[in-house]
Specification:
This protein has a four-stranded mixed β-sheet with strand order 2-1-3-4. The protein has five helices and four strands; from the N terminus they run ααβαβαββα. The chain has one domain: Glutaredoxin, CATH 3.40.30.10. The chain starts with a helix and ends with a helix.
């Protein structure tokens, strides 16, 4: 099972409902043709169990509601959008190594408390 098979797919229709329903939400905006996007999705799938009780993970694929990333003036992939209590908190663009990803996730979780 891949990351995008195991997390909700967000679109314009369900984006705000899903993001505002969770104290910490991280959305991967990605393109299926991009190797860095696929690599980050694979890494997120590996670390997701560590954060499953505190972080809501979701995905938005370019072309299936690509407008979502544009709402935040972001046109590059992969992009991680972090929301705390329904408010956009941070954006991370580009591939992250495992240690970098965990550091970002930990920072975002800490900022939510």
């Amino acid at each position: 099972m891949t990351f995008w098979d195991s997390v909700p797919a967000l679109s314009e229709e369900n984006f705000w409902r899903e993001v505002t329903a969770h104290p910490v939400a991280v959305v991967l905006c990605w393109a299926a043709w991009s190797q860095p996007d696929l690599a980050l999705a694979g890494l997120l799938e590996k670390v997701r169990p560590e954060y499953a009780s505190i972080v809501f993970f979701a995905a938005n694929i370019a072309g299936d509601g690509a407008e979502v990333a544009k709402w935040f003036e972001e046109y590059r992939t992969p992009t991680l959008l972090c929301f705390l209590n329904g408010q956009h908190h941070a954006t991370s663009v580009g591939y992250l190594r495992p240690d970098q990803l965990r550091l970002k996730l930990n920072e975002w979780v800490d900022a939510s408390t």
